[in-house]
Fold these 3 entries.
Entry 1:
Amino acid sequence: MGGNAMTSADGRAAPADQIAAIARAAEPIADVVATGAEVVITHGNGPQVGNLLVKNELAASVVPPVPLDWCGAQTQGTIGFMLLDAVERSLAARGVARPVAALVTRTRVDPGDPRFTEPTKPIGRYLPEAEARVMMDHGQVWQDRGEKGWRRVVASPEPLEILDAPSVTALLAAGFVVVAAGGGGVPVVRGEDGIVRGVEAVIDKDLSAALLGRAIGASVLVIATDVTAAMLNFGTDRVEQVDAVTVARMRQLEAEGHFASGSMGPKVDAACRFVEAGGERAVITSLDRIAEGVAGRGGTIVTAGDAVQPSTVTGR
Amino acid sequence: MGGNAMTSADGRAAPADQIAAIARAAEPIADVVATGAEVVITHGNGPQVGNLLVKNELAASVVPPVPLDWCGAQTQGTIGFMLLDAVERSLAARGVARPVAALVTRTRVDPGDPRFTEPTKPIGRYLPEAEARVMMDHGQVWQDRGEKGWRRVVASPEPLEILDAPSVTALLAAGFVVVAAGGGGVPVVRGEDGIVRGVEAVIDKDLSAALLGRAIGASVLVIATDVTAAMLNFGTDRVEQVDAVTVARMRQLEAEGHFASGSMGPKVDAACRFVEAGGERAVITSLDRIAEGVAGRGGTIVTAGDAVQPSTVTGR
């Protein structure tokens, strides 16, 4: 689930707002667990990291700022904590006796990933040019975003390996619902000396989820978002919902430019990757409909497609 | 291990300092793991939470401050992350193939604990009275600490239950070295409605470690600190090191006032509680000597004491 699903409607990420939003998000998750499914929950952290970066900036003269990998680890702590409380509560309300655990999770990336030299992912708040230039003097990359001001951009390298996938597998085997790979996982690189170190980057949570899903042998990947399905011709009067679709067809639609790079694009890519790597199906749907999605009864359902579907698209 | 063991000598908790300190701390821990022992690591977080509180204060006009339970969860993320990297590295250097996992861990306290009405634990930085009064207007309790200024005091309630002990047990059974209950665990209360919620408090990490140790059936509790053992007449010319000692004798020495309430006191109390609750032995020693301590060859070793020791104290 996305980081925005964990904030209030106005985008603020005050603790009480986050707790309330996660309590709502836990309900459909508990519905899935109640079916007897083994469930791993991953989550975004964009708004939460945004807040941490502001704190870094405003306290920098007193307290050493922490790098992006630490910000990610911090949000795994807080969001993991909230999810433990919330999912346990929703399970208890359903009489489901399943324990929940939250793991600190690292995702390995390639230090030679070209995205490190050409950072593109905007994070944090907009600043006036003068303030942005101060941060640029500290080595950060900021871009002029027009009327709103300047914004920091960071590398979003390709996730290669979920280093802590074995912990997830062990907890699943012991019957736990597991929270893992929050924020895409804490980004790390493995040096030539074999040593793992954190690195300043953010990792796409959907791509990490697809990778984790395959690492633990998950059969279904559900990408919970704020729309009921992926759409074609989005933003036009010819909008169409993508229902059951083969991964080949989904890649074709993607190549035709139907899915925006900053929002639906990575979700579609993640869904395709999961199925291409051997996953049974990937579902893109809204958070409140994930139980139907897992059951194969709603949302965009991507499969390998040996069983040809009569129609991949319905009008709306 | 203490939070101070994870900062540089000058007490700063800059990321690079913390990473270096934890890399050093991981070495003796890996020595213990290399003996074949099943190991759970808990850690303090005082300096780290201190930094987070400063950020809360300085960014409060832009970003909603987060409560103490969140600060604790944040440090479980960052310190857990660092320990994963560092312990894996030290194990690899020894050719030991043991995976490591870090858990978000909650500790339940009693909402009726009298320490909530009489907070005593000082946290964060000293501030001038005027700035302290601003925070007091926001409901915080601050005390005049003389020349250094005013300091916030918070509740440090009794830890009653490590809610996530079952996750620790599951990971241990699967062969993992486990990082858990960092900072004493994220403090939570269970309301009359059965719902678990975070609460503004800090929990003593040594007392939590004793509780966790018994919950998971640990035979040995090692409290790693910066002295080789608990001392009698500390700070006088009659200082004596406590070696092997029965828990009854240790309680007697404690009652005689040998152990300072803010430093060695909780460690001695935790060691005694662990043994009183059925633990085989508790060891208080310096971080670099924990392998000897686990083997029963150094530090203050507290046992139930059915086998009477000829001498519990040696000169130094």
Entry 2:
Amino acid sequence: MLDTIRRGFERFGFVPVETPVFELKDVLLTKSGGETEKQVYFVQSTGSLQQGHEADLALRFDLTVPLARYVAEHERELVFPFRRYQIQRVYRGERAQRGRFREFYQCDIDVIGKDKLDPAYDAELPAIIVRIFEELNVGEFTIHFSNRKILLGLLASFGIDDAEKQKLVLRDIDKLDKIGRPKVREALVDLGLKDIIADRLLSLITHTGSKEELLAALRAEKAEHPVFLQGLMELSQIVVSLKALGVAENRTRLNLAIARGLDYYTGTVYETFIDAHPEFGSVCSGGRYDDLAGLYTKSKLPGVGLSIGLTRLYDQLNMHNLLPQVPHNVQILITQLDPQLSSVYLSLGTELRHAGYNVENYLEPAKLDKQLKYADRAGIPLAIIIGENEQSKGNVLIKDLMAKSQLELPRTELINRLKNIIHHKD
Amino acid sequence: MLDTIRRGFERFGFVPVETPVFELKDVLLTKSGGETEKQVYFVQSTGSLQQGHEADLALRFDLTVPLARYVAEHERELVFPFRRYQIQRVYRGERAQRGRFREFYQCDIDVIGKDKLDPAYDAELPAIIVRIFEELNVGEFTIHFSNRKILLGLLASFGIDDAEKQKLVLRDIDKLDKIGRPKVREALVDLGLKDIIADRLLSLITHTGSKEELLAALRAEKAEHPVFLQGLMELSQIVVSLKALGVAENRTRLNLAIARGLDYYTGTVYETFIDAHPEFGSVCSGGRYDDLAGLYTKSKLPGVGLSIGLTRLYDQLNMHNLLPQVPHNVQILITQLDPQLSSVYLSLGTELRHAGYNVENYLEPAKLDKQLKYADRAGIPLAIIIGENEQSKGNVLIKDLMAKSQLELPRTELINRLKNIIHHKD
């Protein structure tokens, strides 16, 4: 899965970045706060501990803080827009339990601009994720996206421009799945929204039409608040670009209810769901932010990013037996039938490896039966057997462990014939 | 480099293992002791710290302790011999300075047997390393190997069978490079070795002939101590197997002086040197051990392993400008000349990616010149330009940024022609 994700990121021209696992404690704690702060792992060497120092290092708990520090530190050398991906483990001081990990893989992809960043990137990132999830073969999935400017602009155009109140409205909207539309409507009215406004808002949020239809409905609002208009323009461009990028219509959904827990984002927001398993929650989330590294540099660095929580996804797929079968990375076992022929076995191994195959030589003296059982148990599909008999005829015996068939052929033809046999098995 | 190493391990049928970065403090400290103990990083979450607990977790400082714990824990499920490789970062509480790292990559490959493990593996591992270092393209290198049983058995046959005294002899031998043969001879005589014995020992240790010649010289000793005979048999088998595996003669050297700092090993030992840079020290070391996990399980688990200290090697190659050039992973930049054509650019990107290329779409509006400079600076070899003019003719313009040449051709021919252009550049 890691390989597929990496390949996907690179196919779109993103470059890998790795950062140290340690960040200065103060850097990590400035950024976090609240829940995350309780989950930071502090680190101290024996020496430092003995000298009675306090820990000044901590383990990264996400890949965003390291990105911000990295970009601020290398601002002069980097070419902007800076397109990087980072696949590393992050650490959180959780109690180990199902679905909660103390150490897990995060796969982040971000584009960072200097001063400005074109909305075109907001379409490219989900197109990359679509390609990757299709290759990961995890079943049907949908990337839900929205733009926080839409709801905030709409609310402002309805006269609700107090930031605190806007937050309360968004929080109520977030409960839609749990408490249902009538109760959310009630809550919105309690917050001071007129009945008609609450209804219009809710019908937009629960809109089930196509992206174009929802865009048309938004345009029909004729709201003229500049934040709303900006959001609408950005959303429209994403929809056009997704089409040009060849992303299938049903892979993305414009969903204004996507707002929760994404306060950090200022424009586009994304959440990704496995269609058959909404209970997994979002398996890839992200969005656009106005300024990545305001704490570390005076430059304004807007960005957009998406993050795959790979360990959790893997765990969930595994629990539901949804992990795609991966072929074993060893393709051929060369058995050891006659210790006198061990040089023959070793040099055949070298020859097959030069031909590009992953080959294991069985090196312990053991009964053939045991060796074949080993191959079978290890998932190695082919075994090669050369006994005194085959050797004297210049032949080799290939045993297909799944088809339970075997084939004797001249050793000189082996490499050529293997091509077909292995290709056939793929 | 990581990819090459991984591919090399897998070509010989080894399977990857990753273990958590955390080990229980007690597990780590039992194993280490001395210097290493001072370098352990202890880890504690905010919550645990606030409750006044002591740290019970620590970061791994090598991949051997995690391997031992892993094998002991999964002993029942594993198939033995267990052939695993592990490429992960390890952590040591060093002061950050040139050549000393607090976090560095280690690439370990080991075979673990149950109760016994054939000496054939002692030849397979260096053959794998030879293949990998050749692909890494780091210049000429030599794997020095020996077997601790040879010197220990010889000493015993000379009547020096006290383990402490043997250790002192080995320590003196280790100084050969620094203080020269006469002073080492003096030290050996001081330890009670007869003159003639010291000379015989030193002439074996400084032997510069071929592996076969040194083996012959060892046989000529006619020492009959069983430890010596066992070592001689193992060494002879390695020499034969290396040949059968097609390892070039000059890639390995039988060198009895290889003994230092490898007390942990009980048989074969290895050290690898870059020929032109002996000052790098050994860049890949290892050996055979009698029992991997005696602390965690009653089973006897003999093993043999080799470890590449990749971060240090990379740093040294980098300092000496010896790092092989790696082509940029982005092959094509599609420029954005006319915003009206942005859908054309996006869909061309998708098409080229489906054809297997790594392609970046320039998505910011910018002057063509700036875009080409960006490609140049980022090391992207080809740029594709489509303006109104090319679009109306159904053409595309390919710019080769290194050759500073360009080529206009029908878009329908693009994919076919790219094959030659990109292949030609590789």
Entry 3:
Amino acid sequence: MTELPETLANPSLEALRAVHDASSDLVRETPTMTSRSLSRDVGGEIVLKAENLQRTGSFKIRGALAKLRSIDVEGCAGVVTGSAGNHAQSLAYAARSLGIPCRVYMPQAAAIGKVEAVRAFGGEVVRGGEGVDSCVNLARDVALEEGMEFVHPFDDADVIAGQSGVGVELAGQVPDLRKVVVPVGGGGLASGIAIALKLHDPDVEVIGVQAEGCAAAVESMDVHHPVEIEQASTIADGIAVKRPGNLTLPLLERWLDGIVTVDDEAIVGAMVRLAERTKLVTEGAGAVGVAALLTGAVEPASTGATVAVLSGGNVDPRLLAAAINRHEITESRRVRISTRVPDSPGGLADLLQAIALAGANILEVSHVRDLADLDLSQTSVDLTLETRGPDHTAELRAGLAAAGYEVGEG
Amino acid sequence: MTELPETLANPSLEALRAVHDASSDLVRETPTMTSRSLSRDVGGEIVLKAENLQRTGSFKIRGALAKLRSIDVEGCAGVVTGSAGNHAQSLAYAARSLGIPCRVYMPQAAAIGKVEAVRAFGGEVVRGGEGVDSCVNLARDVALEEGMEFVHPFDDADVIAGQSGVGVELAGQVPDLRKVVVPVGGGGLASGIAIALKLHDPDVEVIGVQAEGCAAAVESMDVHHPVEIEQASTIADGIAVKRPGNLTLPLLERWLDGIVTVDDEAIVGAMVRLAERTKLVTEGAGAVGVAALLTGAVEPASTGATVAVLSGGNVDPRLLAAAINRHEITESRRVRISTRVPDSPGGLADLLQAIALAGANILEVSHVRDLADLDLSQTSVDLTLETRGPDHTAELRAGLAAAGYEVGEG
């Protein structure tokens, strides 16, 4: 077991508050929002901590800045890290703000948008390495060789103290706070928040959430040492960490009240719901807390407020668009059907009329005439429809069948 | 010219403040956010007023509630209006909160999601009428017949006083406020904000923005009486109002410092940018202020803060997804090309290698073998690529041409 530095072995709320307050020039106190529709659906008082509205789009700026404030800037040739996303952007942003050079090793396959964002914040990007892990190792080696300061994305006492700022803020923002649901990747955010809140009030419960497709912290907590999983497969790339940290694992074990997992379908559903109802863009990692509440993996507190931390919003817009389209189909609000109509005037019009009567909207119609098995007097029609959900879809199919249409999948 | 009621002819900031404060139990004080990237790109200090985070997803709740608070609830059989969207939801929400029955006439073609939202807030929905205008007229008639209170979406002194709450809040939230950019549909929000802010400080400039495809207020202000335009065609359905109000038009003329238009491409660009960079979902109407700043239609104040009011976020998620995809293509970040490779082992691999060297990501590849005009030794390939933008795309095309590939549009 790694020995914890004193600040983490015997943390004090005053010290964490001081770290938080020292960064108030660059870090936003992000708003909290009650959500009546989520509260109703989940059966508790749900509050969202909109950390996706943080500068650089995620909580990572808190830890990066706390770390940079802890090092000797004069004697430092610059900072270096390996990352595919949020940590890279945040470190570049924080370093530029303090006038420190910053280099980031990013995987060859890193999204162009994320590479550009790091460059826009003045960071030097070196592409190379298969994945994040090899980039982190490369950065650690380079730091030693070139006298730069290596900044680990999560396994660092100063970084963890920085992330605890989310908890420090929640303690002041949410009266009657009873439970907090936090995404867990490497574990820096979750342990930071848990420490701050438990010091504030030991009765506040803190529950971690991982993506089912990359639940290394869950596995590691089972066996009480860091386990490295082989394959990460989840839409929540921000928490797709294959091995929790040597510092963070014992902290998670000590401070969390529980940890659960959610699958990608639940994560996509939460992302779309947050965009549709709450008008907030979240990345997959940022939506896992809401996913856990909506699926029942986490029960809200029976009295008092339950907070879901929306940890970040850095999602490629294209991925968000794909998530919306996928969700519409999953929810059976967008339905493709195929049927046949008489190949004579009014044939299609009658079908469309029957669909309109059933209350569905028609999004797309295409005629398919040249299928060999069709009666020559009929023409095949593919339709994409919008319904109110699975029940309405079933009703629609029954209505069309009753009207004499043979309905297949489109 | 319609005579203005006394509250609008001689408005007082104290009275507007009182309206605002009376609704603080149901209306959120929405956050303001500085945006460094917008500020940099636009060349001024840009602040966003996130009214899309308002309850019911738009500012409309402010006016609806102010109106309901002004009527005699005891003697009222209920409230009724005609609307396709935000006003309907807001009135239903406000009416339920005060225990008043609410009926909304919605166009036959209204989006299912909006109909469902009104019902979810306890409103009775009657579908019928071709467009919003006929629904509004229907509601006005029904109100007379059935002794219900008709609530106009914008042309009502109490509604306008309610919308002024956005201005009341801005006066307190933004130090050194110099300019405010506000969407204009019917004109209720813009005139309300302008009145509150000019009473607060006559030097604050207030500029209205309309969608080019439905600029009835612009035309009407030119000729100093309400003009009805025939066709509304814009993605910004929330401000697609074909005729400004009898009350609002003189108010816009008196209180606005200017009014401009933006086209749908600019609106889509602003929506996507707000989602990508600021993590806020806006509807088209909510994004026109940012569109006006990004296109230069409105110059930011040279010193002090310029606020863009994000008036609402009620966009069909599918429309948001479509906007993202359209914007990617407009920005030439998503490019479709078509070329040919030798139909032999390694032919495609060489092409993909050349593309990777040019730094583009490959999103989709499809082989098209059966085109008649192809040399039999070659196979046609369609590719969808992600680039960093137009310059990078041009570079990529030049690189492929230099490597011997004949590149066409995909």
